[in-house]
Amino acid sequence: xxxxxxxxxxxxxxxxxxxxxxxxxxxxxxxxxxxxxxxxxxxxxxxxxxxxxxxxxxxxxxxxxxxxxxxxxxxxxxxxxxxxxxxxxxxxxxxxxxxxxxxxxxxxxxxxxxxxxxxxxxxxxxxxxxxxxxxxxxxxxxxxxxxxxxxxxxxxxxxxxxxxxxxxxxxxxxxxxxxxxxxxxxxxxxxxxxxxxxxxxxxxxxxxxxxxxxxxxxxxxxxxxxxxxxxxxxxxxxxxxxxxxxxxxxxxxxxxxxxxxxxxxxxxxxxxxxxxxxxxxxxxxxxxxxxxxxxxxxxxxxxxxxxxxxxxxxxxxxxxxxxxxxxxxxxxxxxxxxxxxxxxxxxxxxxxxxxxxxxxxxxxx
Length: 365
Description:
This protein is α/β, with parallel strands linked by helices and 365 residues long.
């Protein structure tokens, strides 16, 4: 096979839409059982072009798609009832997925003069109908900074036909009016987050960087029926041990917000520590007494996590991490919080370190 043929075949077989089109003519009976591992982000054109049943393990949609669907429904409707009929036509396509992934931008603005990028409101009825019709077993909320830096165009808000949902708003129960099925779990992915991760690390409402993301877990439980929330990719880079102590305390406050009865939360926390720059001689790490540190220690392979915005995570090298598990439980509420904490193995092996670093290393012994 020539290099040109190989390049062409890669383009065809790596594009699910082209592959589907070919299969629709070659083996049409095969399509209902053809399952694509991951596709997205799904857009309006993909919705319009969906003719045959599609099955996805992971299907990516965006907050921009939610806006576009809601705005189009409002633009061509003269009443709320007509708007919802159009919404049903948009989303009632032959799609099934195992996990529905929401890419949510942290970088949107209200207007040209807005200098505070943020996560903006989403139309609840749009993503709820997707869940009910496409029947995912789980949801992933993936916050992305520096992704789609644009001005929010939200005619749907002015219409008042849709319910506004913003996951970093102050927590308020949404009530029992949702008709969503119970999800196996909701995953909060912070790998590409800056604003949400910053609020988790430095929880201080008086600061200009604060965006209210300490409410995100409580709001996720309120919006999406589930008994399990998984936090992945949360990491902090520092060369002092004191900020890491604050994170342990912040997470305890965050996970206990809202309705946490019969809830299990599992979270990753990657401590990307640089002892060569450390100045922690008089400081030792402080872990809140509410945590129980489990004796079990494990080795974990995961890409390295450089400072935010410095390098794309998918281009990072694999790295060895040592994992220790912390646990917090409230038996009366049947609430369980497990914090899997990771430190690079290269840091563990260091010998000549200051007192602060020693206090951090002692946790991972």
